[in-house]
Design brief:
- The complex is a heterodimer of chains A (112) and B (116).
- Chain A has 112 residues and is mainly beta.
- Chain A has no helices and 11 strands.
- Chain A has strands at residues 5-6, 9-13, 18-23, 31-37, 43-50, 55-58, 61-66, 71-76, 85-92, 101-102, 106-111.
- In chain A, strands 2, 4, 5, 9, 10 and 11 form a 6-stranded mixed β-sheet that branches. A 5-stranded antiparallel β-sheet of chain A has the order 1-3-8-7-6, with no helix packed on it.
- The radius of gyration of chain A is 13 Å and the shape is globular.
- Chain B has 116 residues and is mainly beta.
- Helices cover 0% and strands 48% of the residues of chain B.
- Chain B contains no helices and 11 strands.
- In chain B, a hairpin with a 6-residue loop joins strand 7 and strand 8 (75-79).
- Classes of the chains: A mainly beta (112), B mainly beta (116).
Chain lengths: 112, 116
């Protein structure tokens, strides 16, 4: 079945690294995404990775993909208070279009 | 350029009433999607329009939900009659023409629906 799992909550100290993990089930997924939702805002695409890659780095963000284990992670270096938000992992099965399968979201709390 | 806009941002209605949510996609985007997040759970796909045609409505929960996209521009999602379990945040997203080559769907801020 289609299911994306993520831990619900993560608390980190400002300046530390955050690692948010996600597992997905559809091995045919072409793209995997990380979306961010700040309070009162919509979903903002943070980054995505194509399924034939195993790592993607974008400034403070590093995405790791283990296709064998169907495991995706998002590492945020030097976490800041502005990073506090809900982070959603999503997979896009093959077949085109942007019909995404989301997880329940991980709430990241950054404290001083 | 305006992003995806949704109206209203919040709606509180009584069980049995009717509510209509509206989504204005980014101008020129053929693809329009509706999603829903219920009670802090995962965001679930509801349906997908390509222009005015329903491409995929496999996620629609039941026949109390009716989505339209007349003229291929804005879309409405009507819930009639609303039930308590319909409470949640309804997101709309749009993406340009084309399927597999589009890597990003742009999301609106969502409409928070509360049925009491």
């Amino acid at each position: 079945g289609e299911d994306v799992e993520q831990s619900l909550f993560l608390s980190v100290r400002e300046g530390d690294s955050s690692v948010i993990n996600c597992t997905y089930t559809d091995s045919s997924s072409t793209y995997l995404y990380w979306y961010k939702q700040e309070p009162g805002a919509g979903l903002q695409l943070l980054t995505y990775i194509f399924s034939n890659m195993d790592m993607k780095q974008d400034q403070r963000l590093t995405v790791l993909l283990n296709k064998k284990d169907k495991h995706l992670s998002l590492r945020i270096a030097d976490t800041q208070t502005g990073d506090s938000a809900i982070y959603f992992c999503a997979e896009r099965p093959s077949g085109g279009y942007n019909k995404l399968i989301f997880g329940a979201g991980t709430r990241l709390a950054v404290h001083p | 350029e305006a992003g995806v806009t949704q109206f209203p941002s919040h709606s509180v209605i009584e069980k049995g009433q009717t509510v209509t949510l509206r989504c204005d996609p980014i101008s020129g985007h053929d693809n329009l999607y509706w999603y829903r997040r219920v009670m802090g759970k995962e965001i679930k796909f509801l349906l997908h329009f390509v222009k005015e045609s329903k491409q995929d409505e496999s996620g629609m929960p039941n026949n109390r939900f009716l989505a339209e996209r007349t003229g291929g521009t804005y879309s409405t999602l009507k819930v009639q009659p609303a039930e308590l379990e319909d409470s949640g945040v309804y997101f709309c997203a749009s993406s340009p023409r084309g399927g597999a080559m589009n890597t990003e769907a742009f999301f609106g801020q969502g409409t928070r629906l509360t049925v009491v």
